[in-house]
């Protein structure tokens, strides 16, 4: 007995998971699966969202010994950041020749989030976004600046969801070429900015 039955906090469940308790892991899985899936569906297809959430939860199990929570904190910030990273790696894999796992490892560092705050990067991205074709730029801004899900963008513009996805993927390809990142690390940082530096 690990005591999480009477106090099923994230911290208590995580402690049990770190002792290889699969029942505790299942409780965490059930607690967060729907919310993570809903978040992922704002950016990718439902089937893809299921796969990404599964990857996040598998990663949680594999990294269970490395995770520590501040006093009184839950797992939500960790898991929602993780699903953002998985979405980023998904699009990066589509738009460039980068392995998902490698990109996830690059993004999963404090340095990446610090570098995305630089004014230089922000200015470069803004300039290149302004050079995108009008409709592509509109779709990109609705997604990244207004934080609208693909379904809503498609409805507002009266186009198919696939058209929106195609526009976003092409925008990423063009931005990658224009900004010419020299390494997987630079590409990861660029993608982190494009997908995570948006209004919540």
TrEMBL record:
One of the Pfam families matching this protein, by short name: Sigma70_r2
Domain RNA polymerase sigma-70 region: 28-92
Gene Ontology BP, a term: DNA-templated transcription initiation
A GO MF label: DNA binding
InterPro entries for this protein: RNA_pol_sigma-70-like (IPR039425), RNA_pol_sigma-70_dom (IPR014284), RNA_pol_sigma70_r2 (IPR007627), RNA_pol_sigma70_r4_t2 (IPR013249), RNA_pol_sigma_r2 (IPR013325), RNA_pol_sigma_r3/r4-like (IPR013324), WH-like_DNA-bd_sf (IPR036388)
UniProt domain RNA polymerase sigma factor 70 region 4 type: residue ranges: 125-175
Record's keyword annotation contains Transcription regulation: yes
Sorted UniProt keywords: Sigma factor, Transcription, Transcription regulation
Similarity comment: Belongs to the sigma-70 factor family. ECF subfamily.
Name recorded for this polypeptide: RNA polymerase subunit sigma-24
Record organism: Chitinophaga parva
């Amino acid at each position: 007995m690990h005591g999480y039955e009477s106090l099923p906090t994230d911290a208590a469940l995580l402690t049990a998971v770190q002792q290889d308790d699969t029942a505790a892991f299942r409780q965490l899985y059930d607690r967060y699966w729907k919310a993570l899936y809903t978040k992922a569906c704002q950016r990718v297809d439902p089937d893809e969202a299921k796969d990404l959430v599964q990857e996040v939860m598998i990663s949680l199990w594999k990294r269970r010994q490395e995770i520590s929570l501040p006093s009184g904190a839950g797992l939500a910030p960790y898991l929602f950041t993780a699903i953002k990273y998985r979405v980023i790696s998904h699009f990066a894999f589509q738009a460039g020749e980068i392995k998902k796992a490698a990109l996830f490892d690059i993004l999963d560092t404090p340095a990446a989030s610090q570098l995305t705050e630089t004014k230089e990067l922000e200015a470069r991205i803004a300039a290149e976004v302004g050079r995108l074709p009008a409709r592509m730029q509109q779709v990109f801004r609705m997604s990244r600046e207004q934080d609208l899900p693909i379904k809503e963008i498609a409805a507002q513009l009266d186009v198919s969801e696939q058209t929106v996805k195609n526009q976003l993927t092409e925008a990423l390809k063009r931005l990658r070429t224009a900004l010419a990142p020299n390494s997987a690390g630079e590409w990861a940082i660029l993608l982190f900015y494009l997908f995570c530096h948006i209004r919540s």
